[in-house]
Amino acid sequence: MVSESITYQKEAETSPVYNVLANNNNNICDNLTGNNVSNCVDNNLPTQAVKVAVHVRPLIASERLQGCKDCVSVVPGEPQVQVGNFGFTFDHVYGNTALPSSRIFDECVAPLVEGLFHGYNATVLAYGQTGSGKTYTMGTTYTVGDDKNGIIPQVMDLIYDRMRSSKKNINYQVLVSFIEILNEEVNDLLDSNSPTGTRQDSYVGFCTRVSTPPKASIQIRETTNGEITLSGVSEVEVNNLEEMAALLEQGSLCRATASTNMNSQSSRSHAILTITLRQQRKLELNADNETSLLDHIPDDNLCAKLHLVDLAGSERVKRTGADGIRFKEGVHINKGLLALGNVISALGDEKKRKEGGHVPYRDSKLTRLLQDSLGGNSRTVMIACISPADSNAEETLNTLKYANRARNIQNKPIVNRDPMTAEVQRLRQQLELLQSQLSCCRPNGGAVEDTHILKKKIAWLEASNADLQRELQQARDGLQFCAQRVLDVLIERDELRHKLDLLRSGKTWDEVNGNDEYQACCLNDSLELLHAYTTKIQDFETSINSVEDNKCGTHMDTSLICNDGFSGVHTMQPNGDSRHIISRTPEEEEEAAAKELEHNRFQVSMDNELQELNERLKQKEAEMKSISNADNLILKQQFEKKLLELEEEKKNLQRERDKLLLEVENLACVSDEQTQKIREEYAEKLKLLESQLAELKRKQDSQAQLLRQKLKSDDAAKRLQEDIQRIKSQKVQLQNKIKQEGDQFRLWKASREKELLQLKKEGRRNEHELLKLQALNQRQK
Ligand code: ADP
Ligand code: MG
Asked: What spacing in Å lies between the alpha carbon of 267 and ligand 2's midpoint?
């Protein structure tokens, strides 16, 4: 075996095909691991590798006679074949000690036939040296009554079984064409007028010209979508299995075969039987049996082809002993197979494939016709037929290398639709989509109604929005005016309070007023002015309260509210027009109502609190007023004056008493009666003075008590003042809080208005869509 493998390597150097194979020995050996990965290589289409099965035929009688030995071994339980030192892994191995040949059809071909019914093209390609069993495996020479061991008769059976068991609403059309490529010419095996049409009788393996004029030569064409077709080839429609079998028989009888040293019935041409399956699925009627436009449109028109290829075997002239015409045929056969080898090499080389390298399909008619089957739109199974005889070991090895390389070919099968049907299908889908859209838009469909309601809502909202905007502006103006007035009054009040404080702290009216215009006014006038200002403050406070009360009333009166955008106050719609009922989704409505209710409650509670504070402020101010009123002030001044007078009187009396006491002491040293009398007078005078002094002291005490009371009342006034300040700051805080809440509510309201605008936009868009759809529907009618 070693010597044989050396011989093979030497020959490989001389042959371009063999060179390619020899250069990829490593790759071939790598394939022993059996990796067969499918990946996306183009246009994101799912790819599918060419499946390769090996069929090892038994030793035939002639080989046994020559004493040939079996040189092919199969690894038990594995799809692996061993020839000499070389091992190969394939998808399947049949024959010899491997699986029985009868399983080839079920495992390799039947799935392709099933795929045919789903619109997938398929190819079964028998490859191998001459006499290796290709024709036997394919069953190309089947005649009615023979055993149906070959693939083709079983394919025919399965197709008709499948059609019989399929649905009633599918119309099938089966077309058969049968061609051969002989000497780089395509011959129609089903055309009785073709040069091959008379071979039945004069069958000698080459063409005999007949008198009937030949048809125009068959041309290989490529359609715009890349499909390879043959122009001028008969495509015969068959209606049953028998017709198909008869055509196969007729065609195979026309095929060129001849006897060579290698095979007594050697195929001298590559034969391709093509079964085209067209299926038209009729759409079922509507449930109510009404016919519609759709009933006249086919649901799906699939058209797929199954190529069953029986190649002529590679041969070496030395072994076949061919000469003359046979030699010429052999050269062409080898030429075609060489081109096929190059195509397989180009497609099987992953690196080249990724680089988008050139695939030499155009080098021969065979490769051109198999363009779809190898690397194109087809599911392909290659059956490598080999002879186990050691005399054929070299060719067997080449076949296995070829086949192994073919496993790397990635095809891109797709569902094949008749272009017209595909377009109709697309339009039909579009129509269905539009009809469903239209039915949604019909008045009873709801969408139009929705749009109508939406439009109405938008109109209502717009009108109410305009009204509210107007009222908002009015309220803003009024409020601004009030706020200005309140500010002025507050300033005046604060000034007056300040003056009051100064007066309380003991400053005179003149000092407090400085050189202003009131300097000359008397105290009463000032008090009157003070009174007038206080009244004014009260009036303004009352007016503020009433304004706030009104606002509260508004909150309570209506649920239709709108933010004025300034102080968070809301105004009611001027009338009870139904347009102002803002209709939204129930959830939104609920949420909005809850928010507004909460806002109203907050406003009411805040306003109440504010009112309460104002009440307290008023009360405190009244108390303050009572404490610091003008009478008190005058009384205080009188008391003070009186106290001073008393003090002065007391001092005078004390001085007088002291003087008298001194005189009494001076008189003490004089001891006559006159002096005694004067002393008694002085003593009485002194007594009087003493009593006067006591009286004065009492008065002074009462004055002091009054002063203490006054101080107390001053303290109370101070406390009151502090209370007033505290209440005021509370009031400011509360007002701020109200404003803040109002601002928040305004923001929320603004977002609601934005949402409204979006709704409006959506409404317009819907309307536009509807118009478009209606126009479209009108056109289609
Ligand atoms: P090819 O078409 O490859 O040139 P054939 O199919 O004509 O070869 O087969 C050559 C010979 O071998 C034929 O006589 C055929 O009957 C025989 N043969 C081929 N395969 C088998 C097989 N699996 N079992 C028995 N005989 C076979
Ligand atoms: Mg053959």
From this structure: 4
Cα separation of 431 and 437, whole Å?
10
Cβ neighbours for 513, distance < 8 A, ≥ 6 positions apart = 499, 519
Residue nearest to atom 10 of ligand 1 (CA): 131
What are the tens digits of pLDDT across the range 288-300?
444 444 444 445 7
- Ligand 1 close to Cβ of residue 139 (< 6 A): no
Domain containing residue 210: 2-34+101-282+305-341+361-388
Q: Describe the chain by its helix, strand, coil percentages, rounded to 5.
A: 60, 15, 25
Q: How crowded is residue 349: how many other Cβ atoms within 10 Å of its Cβ?
A: 19
Block residue for tokens 């030569």: 217
Q: CA separation (Å) from 282 to 171, 237, 290?
A: 8, 21, 15
Which residue has 């928040």 as its token pair? 744
Cβ contact 386:396 at 8 Å:
yes
Same domain, 316 and 463: no
What DSSP element (H or E) covers 767?
helix 673-780
Asked if residue 431 and residue 330 are part of one domain, the reply reads: no
CB 445 within 8 A of CB 439: yes
Give the whole-angstrom CA distance, residue 405 versus residue 25.
10
CB contact at 8 A, 340 and 370: yes
Ligand 1 pocket test, pick from 54, 55, 57, 151 with the greatest ligand atom count within 8 Å of Cβ, gives 57
Residue 129 labeled ligand binder: yes
**Tokens standing for residue 208:** 């005999």
Note whether 266 and 257 are within 8 A (CB): yes
Q: Is the CB of 60 under 6 A from ligand 1?
A: yes
Dihedral of the alpha carbons of 746, 748, 754, 758, in degrees to the nearest 10: -160
Query: Mean pLDDT, consecutive 10-residue segments, the chain of 781 residues?
Result: 29 28 30 30 71 95 90 92 92 92 95 95 94 93 85 96 86 93 88 55 32 62 84 92 92 73 70 93 53 50 93 69 66 82 86 78 92 94 95 92 91 85 76 80 62 80 84 84 84 82 76 55 54 67 64 43 36 38 59 77 81 83 71 69 81 82 70 72 82 84 82 84 86 86 87 88 88 85 70
**Is residue 777 a contact partner of residue 434, using CB atoms and an 8 Å limit?**
yes
Please indicate, yes or no, whether residues 430 and 376 belong to a single structural domain of this protein: no
Assess whether the C-beta atom of 135 lies below 6 angstroms from ligand 1.
yes
Q: Which amino acid is it at 26?
A: N
Report the residue among 54, 60, 137 best suited for mutation to probe ligand 1: largest number of ligand atoms under 8 A from its CB.
Answer: 60
Domain match, 120 and 238 both: yes
Please state whether beta strands 270-281 and 266-267 pair in parallel, antiparallel, or not at all (unpaired): unpaired
Which pLDDT value is given to residue 554? 45
The pLDDT tens digits of the residues spanning 340-352 come to: 988 998 888 777 7
Quote the number of domains for the chain: 2
Between strands 86-89 and 185-188, the pairing is unpaired
Pocket lining: 313 vs ligand 1, CB cutoff 6 Å? yes
Q: Is residue 110 part of a domain?
A: yes
Q: Which of 433, 468, 491 is the last residue of a domain?
A: 491
Q: Do the Cβ atoms of 122 and 379 come closer than 8 Å?
A: yes
> DSSP code of 198?
G
**Residue entry with tokens 């395509």:** 186
Q: Does the beta carbon of 123 lie inside 6 Å of ligand 1?
A: no
Given a contact cutoff of 8 angstroms between Cβ atoms, the answer to whether 526 and 509 are in contact is: yes
Domain boundary among 432, 460, 491: 491
